Fold this sequence. Notes:
By secondary structure, the protein is of the alpha+beta class. It has one domain: Trna Endonuclease, Chain: A, domain 1 (3-Layer(aba) Sandwich). It is 21% helix and 42% strand. It has 2 helices and 6 strands; from the N terminus they run αβββαβββ. A 6-stranded mixed sheet has the order 1-2-3-4-6-5, with helices on both faces. The protein is globular and about 45 Å long. The chain starts with 11 loop residues before the first helix and ends with a strand.
Amino acid sequence: xxxxxxxxxxxxxxxxxxxxxxxLQSQGWQILHRRWxxxxxxxxxxxxxxxxxxxAFVEVKTRSSGNWDEGGLLSLTPQKQAKLWRTATFYLTxxxxxxxxxxxxxxxxxYSQGFATHPPxxxxxxxxxxxxxxVGNVKFQLLLQEYIPAxxx
Length: 153
């Protein structure tokens, strides 16, 4: 029996970003761009608050249990933060009408777990939003565990 092609499986990172974008919209944010990239790097989500002049550059980390980096938090090294800063600076040069907005760098931590029949009961604290999806015979549960406004900068 051969394994299904990699295109058969969903890109869990993109699904995590979908979940965070939905949550942000429910919190009063407008999504300006998803996966915006330039030669310096990529920003997962660029969002503007609908009632106050504020921009958020959101880094989404989607991880499964047993990962090495504390749900993605440890992967935000000073080098990664500098790369995001450069990318955001370039973003603002491409969209100068947003230059005067206060900006912040947020981090969203999404937990991903595959399951066979029923979504597992999780002991993870304070789920902000969850999503169960199925692609073929593969089922996933995504949980927005933590949203950290102004995580660095």
